[in-house]
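Apologies for my clumsy wording, but can you show me some protein sequence, whichever is easiest, together with the matching structure tokens, please?
=====
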Amino acid sequence: MKKAILHLGFLILSTTFSWNASAQMTVIPQKEKLEIEQQVKTLILTPPNLQHVFAEDLQRDKNGELYRIGVSMTTFTTPENAGIWKTLPSGERVWQLKVKATGAEALSFLFDKFIIYGNTVVSVFDLNGKLVHEPLRVSDVQEHGMQNIALCFGDELILQIREPKNTKPSEIQLTEVMYGYRSTGNSIAAKINESDPCQVNVNCSEGSQWADERNGVARILVKDGFNQGWCSGALVNNAALDCKPYFLTALHCGVTSSTNDFNQWKFYFKYEATACTNPTSTGTLGGSSTTITGCVKKATSNDGGGNSGSDFLLVQLGSTSNEATTVTKLKSTAIQAYWNGWDANNTVVNNGVSIHHPAGDIKKISTYTSNLVTSGWNSNGLSSHWRVQWSATPSGHGVTEGGSSGSPIFNYNNGNSRIIGTLTGGSSYCNATSSPDYYGKMSYHWDQNSASGNIKLKTFLDAGNSGIKVLDGSFDPCDGTTPPPAPTGYCAATSTNCSYESIYNVLLGTINNTTGCTNYGDYTSLSTDLTRGQSYTITVTPQAAGTVGSAYTNDEIAVYIDWNNDLNFTGTGERVGYVKVATGWTNQFTFTVPTTATLGKLRMRVRISYQPDEGNISPCGTTADGEVEDYSVMIKPVSTAGIEENEMLQAVQIYPNPATDQLTIDFNELKTNLDLVQIKDVTGKLILELKNQGSKTIQVDLSSLSNGMYHVILQAEGIQATRKFVKN
């Protein structure tokens, strides 16, 4: 609770007002309200043509662009050319200006110069004298001199500057007012809880294991040219463990944002319901104490928003000079931010969540329980994205929406889960819960984007070039007690002498590799396909003292496959073959691929060592005698029949694109027939469904469709791929 002397209508009124996470109050008596209306000059701004704006938004939303909530009204307003100054008997000077933009849900005041001195206070009130934004003071002045007093609810508001006696005059230039017309969270205008009804609040039971990670996720009020919109993103740790306030989101959120635009971005932490139910007012969701204003662009995929890469943007919160202040605020009890960990290995996982702010709404959580699938975005032909399908949970069926862009997707890691991607877009909606979404891979962000001007993510998250690709999160990574980075690859394994016993040949499927004595051999370029649920036999032929097929008594031979792709061989059933050489021993081992094995390329390790000298055989470490060889296996689902999503995307041609009255789907190059073709609009609504008629070419009549973007869902032998086309 704070106490202050509030001067409105230039009559001194001593009153008490409250500003905290649950209240904003100070009502002027009717007399003072009338004096304000009569005396305060009004800056009347011309509202945008909302019919035109909504038409643009329809196309923007279809194209997966920034989810826009406001457009700019330009002005050049200073206390010298607008409003009224009044000197009070106390010597204090007060300036007031009424700003009106009819019909706005909220107004955001963007200053290209905001410099105040001493104990000066800048406030925004509605016509009832209620504070609609936390007052700004000298501590809010940025090094670049810009400021954003954002999302002040109402279309007619009063700006006030209060300068104590003998204080240096303020230097204020208001150059833009953002007209907020949707998804502002204005509870007075019944605009809170605007995301789709199936969404799950982060503090429902589904979020119980993600309490740390959620504290690093924030919604972003983006300024991109003359537009204002919502995105999501996350605070991320870095290998130096120095608390740098790096924040990861999607490039398409601010693909044309200028340096000055970034100065006026705002990051809202802890914008969430405290329980599973939706709140009835944003008054319980915190104020400026939980926001960070401004950022500095650091790294980008430079791919136009995913069209030729993985669509990532890394920024530093605050400004270069106020880094220490920003970190202190992030650690404050109001925010208690969590620097999220990450995993930049290209590892398929089948359990995790995304935490995000759909439509700029309070924080939500979406859950997946099936394998992520490597894919591209917008038919870019790359392996740049994870494709995810969301699962129903007890509280709903989380999906994503506009405003979710840039949000992190996490793998599950027993309470210290890590970011593995950031949202580019997709077609999941509450009425299309089975439609997929696409997240740019951390592994691709890391060092694989090839666009000119791209700055790799590893440049900042591993500035010391340590080579790590996995890092845990922390509430205070620079406190000196944070554990060191987690292991980033498979443990080393070798021997110092393989002249006594070595691996002569490994035979499994198409792998048939005969080698000499190398102590350790990396043959991961050799691979064979294995299908879930199927049984296979691997033959490991040793060589002892130059004799092929022989081994010393008490030699041990073991084969390991990393079924869950967690970069070690310690999981249940991951030692798939073992023998201790004795009478009647065999060099053939039969195993069954688990039905839960991670799809894609996995590591297989083969080892021979001498038990009496080395102890029990282990997949890690150095032995005096023996040899180690590493291979790859490619895990296939039972239903794939040899067809992959990327193969389908490359083999199926869709033209022309954009199309007018007719679209051709040509799959003559596909080695099988398509079982099903669906066309859906961007809301997930099914427009057309065609089942296989035996033809290799399908002609689709588009004459009845409205202009915009559509998804073509292709299905064959259990594999699904999605393409996009535009109807003009």
Notes: The radius of gyration is 30 Å.
